[in-house]
Amino acid sequence: MRLAFVVLLVACGSPPVRKTPPKELPADSLGDIAGRWVTSDDMDIGYSMTIDDSGGIDVWIDRGKMGRCEQKGSIAAAASRTFRVVYKIGECVPQSVGVPLGMKVPSFTGDSLTVVVGEQSRTYQRAPEPTSQTDSPVQLQ
Description:
Blueprint: H1 2-11, H2 30-33, E1 35-40, E2 46-51, E3 56-62, E4 68-79, E5 82-90, E6 101-108, E7 112-117, E8 120-126
Antiparallel strand pairs: 1-2, 1-8, 2-3, 3-4, 4-5, 5-6, 6-7, 7-8
């Protein structure tokens, strides 16, 4: 009899609280998406992307034992949620140097930025601000 009473109490509990998804924000200008963004993939490769509102983009990829590489160039707004990237330095993908690439932004919440270049999609999180002068914005450990 006690077991039936306990099961009844558990079954009558309130439904789980649904978390409201973050609000999508405009991502049409460099000022909207400017900042330092970080992520990693399932192979523990770390990515750090810095976009400045004056038109610079700097991407560092930490490939573990294979070392770090840099893709650096310019970025400009092209259309709604679309940017044009041209790399001048292409250590990671040399064939991308000088080639205009379209970078779409399907999702931007201020804390999270999803970009799609070609068929590759990557979701970044806004990097915390450095807390001291010894914190480097491009160090990936």
